[in-house]
Design a protein that fits this description.
Number of strands: 12
Number of domains: 3
Number of helices: 8
Distance between the termini: 51 Å
Order of helices and strands: EEHEEEEHEHEHEHEHHEEH
Strand order of the largest sheet: 2-1-5-3-4
Length: about 250
């Protein structure tokens, strides 16, 4: 049996019980194990980690843990430049794109409503989500730790909240997305961009009530769904305004 001392910092503590939060604790293990496998055995997916320090030296995920190692594990840094150290996460995408797992359908609609490029299929398998993430450089958003522990995954985030409105607030804060919000520019059903359309071109497809009270319309470039500024739009606009507050 081998024994190490380890501490997790900041939001990584959310994966632990109160006894192991914000403290250095001992952990026993057997055999040869990489630092990545050891950390994930404790419940923290590697996609949440940006820096690992072992005995005062930064290491990568392939480092083999030794008896007596003193380990510190850090999440993504926002205000400190660690480029000269062993950064473990890929650089943030200038135009972030996402793929959500099958349990986050409502969150998907909120993200698309705010203009974020978000792929989602309610029948996608974990392998399909991972493949899409890799092929299109999309960040996986999930409540399933198993997906994020897959060795091929490079970008991912475990959303903590269970309420969809709290989830979208969490995502915006976590990825610093306020400046990227472009509300009501993307179809909430298929993720394609919307374009403005004249009322005369779609008047035969509009409900009678809508024809008389709405004057601005958009249509999805892909699925042809029509959008207008009705009562639902007003409620969503209030929600967006709240999100944009400092």
């Amino acid at each position: 049996m081998k024994r190490i001392s380890i501490r997790f910092y900041e939001e990584l503590n959310e994966f632990f019980s109160s006894q192991k939060r914000k403290v250095r604790f001992a952990h026993n293990f057997f055999g040869r194990v990489s630092i990545k496998d050891l950390i994930e055995s404790l419940g923290v997916p590697h996609t949440e980690i940006d820096l690992i320090i072992v005995n005062g030296v930064s290491v990568n995920f392939n480092y083999l843990v030794s008896d007596g190692d003193d380990i510190s594990v850090y999440p993504e840094f926002e205000s400190i430049d660690i480029t000269k150290l062993q950064r473990l996460r890929p650089k943030s995408l200038r135009r972030p794109k996402f793929v959500l797992d099958v349990h986050l359908g409502t969150l998907t609609r909120y993200m698309r409503m705010l203009g974020f490029n978000t792929k989602y299929e309610n029948s996608s398998s974990d392998d399909e989500v991972i493949k899409l993430s890799l092929n299109e450089k999309r960040t996986i958003i999930t409540r399933d730790l198993g997906i994020l522990k897959h060795k091929k995954v490079t970008r991912g985030y475990f959303v903590r909240n269970t309420n969809p409105k709290k989830q979208i607030e969490e995502i915006i804060n976590r990825f610093d997305l306020k400046s990227e919000i472009k509300e009501f520019t993307r179809c909430i059903d298929c993720n394609s961009l919307l374009r403005k359309v004249g009322k005369k071109k779609i008047i035969d497809r509009l409900p009678v009530k809508v024809k008389n009270i709405c004057f601005q319309y958009c249509i999805c470039k892909k699925c042809d769904k029509i959008y207008w500024q009705g009562s639902h739009y007003q409620k969503m606009k209030l929600f967006v305004d709240e999100l944009m507050k400092d």
